[in-house]
Description:
seven-stranded mixed sheet, disordered C terminus, Oligo-1,6-glucosidase, domain 2, TIM Barrel, alpha/beta, Immunoglobulin-like, 32 strands
Amino acid sequence: MAAFAREMVNRMQLYHDSRDSAYRAPSGAQPCCSEVRLRLRVSGGQPDQVYLRAWFGKEAFYPMRCVDATERLYEAILCLPGTPCLLWYDFQAWQAGQFYWYGNAEDGLGGVGAPVYGNARSFQITVYDPDFKNPDWVDSAVFYQIFPDRFSRGNSPVPPPLPKGRTFHLDFSEKPDLVVNAETGDNAAHDFFGGTLDGIREKLPYLQTLGVTGLYLNPIFLSDTNHRFNTSDWETIDPLLGAASDFRRLCAEALRFGIRVVLDGVFSHAGSDSRFFKHASAVSDSPYRSWFTFVNWPSVYKSWWGFATLPEMNKHDPAVNRYFLTGDRAIVKRWVREGASGWRIDVADELPMPYLRQMRASAREARADALLIGEVWEDASNKVAYGEMRSYCLGDTLDGVMNYPLRDEAVAFLTGSTDAYRFKRRMDSLYENYPPPFARALLNVLGSHDRARILSVLAGVDGLDLPREERAELRLTDAQRELGAERLKLMLALVAVMPGIPCVYYGDEAGVEGSADPYNRGTFPWGREDKALTAYFIQVLGRRKTVSPLARGSLAIEALSGDVVAIIRTAGMETARTVIDRSALTADFWVGPADNTDIPAVHDDRWETDAD
Length: 612
């Protein structure tokens, strides 16, 4: 045992930090054909050989030369590939016949590495298209997500004419219905509240006051459900919401308020009542049969996650590509030409990469400054989907994704299930992997239609531990609501200063609570808003337009203690610093000269979480 201990003490030690410019410069994602200097420090012995091992489709070894004998620093200059890709690297050394291997940290999140004793564990460099550029309007954007049936009725008749099988809530403040399909376990979603496109248009002054510059609308096309993710006809806006003329009017008036409209694009699957699927399953030689994958025609077919009501589109079929992407009247082009400023792509990580590339090209063909945001729940630089690693941030597919990693880590930090050190580590890794234009186009969501209301989540009462039928009656106590609201202010203050586009789910700013679907899809409480909370949202979101570092500034995250995290954004000669203290429930904000390294934690009443 003593001999083993002496051997371990005498072993050579290797060190590299992917986020320290002394070891990797420049850091982070880099454009094609650029150079990166990589260094390795060796201590406890003199190596005979040191190699940088790189892999980007093929393995290559680069001898590293000693550039500092005192510090025993070894260096290699890596010329990055001319094609966008993920490049992986680690280090190998030999001393007296002994092999040493040094790679990424054991959690795979970069920064300071660790010895490798088994399978390779490499550092990542995201190599992106040097021409990758997002629309200028994205940099200072603030988005607002609307579930169209639940936002505002406008002047639509009550009740409107309803197709068979649908029900209508006369009282706009009622809870949504839960009718569970015993076979699938899914909610039927056949109850409606009468929200319309005109209702959204009439609320544009409110949205402008809130600081909104972009609307993300959940699906608006013909469907028999209130969520409309089972599309019946992509060419027709659901009459319960309005008509194409109403959509064009909404987009035109929104632009006059400085607001753009982005649509939810559901291109992975259709509704089982779509005219294409009905014809394909009724006629053996239907021209639409190849649009779907029938295992045993007509009753057995591939469907989204096994839901028979959602037959999966065959994205490899040329006719499907023409209909959605490449034809003169292709759906992606058509609605952008009608007034949309882009698309949020539902389940983007389930679409083939060539399909996404063409989608981006088609959207930009219709509008040069169109935006494409994808639904990807993990780190979108290295998502493993269908057995292969896919990178959505190289500049050839998506402009950005929904930033669920930020949301999840912020919730975990603010509710105490993790600490500031963990938040910093996860976010440092995420933003290290993302190219700057991609990071600026992340949709930094607080809540969404796929999660329980953020107020309830932050209060620690999301109801997910209850049977679904009991969640309708779930109510926050006054104390729970107060805690949730204070934490929500902290979360907004945090999300609003991170790279990306802050995105408010309708009603979160008004204090809406609720468990998961369908109770996270309740109506906006017009006349019953939490006005103090709304005022705070207005103040914080207003910073996006007036504080330049929040648009394009560099990012630094500091964990000042387990309870306190600081976000520092710097652009030119100006620095913005936000300090979030979860224990004191305070968010402090400071703007000043970039060369001031001793930035005080100044209390700013405009960002004070208990301000009236």
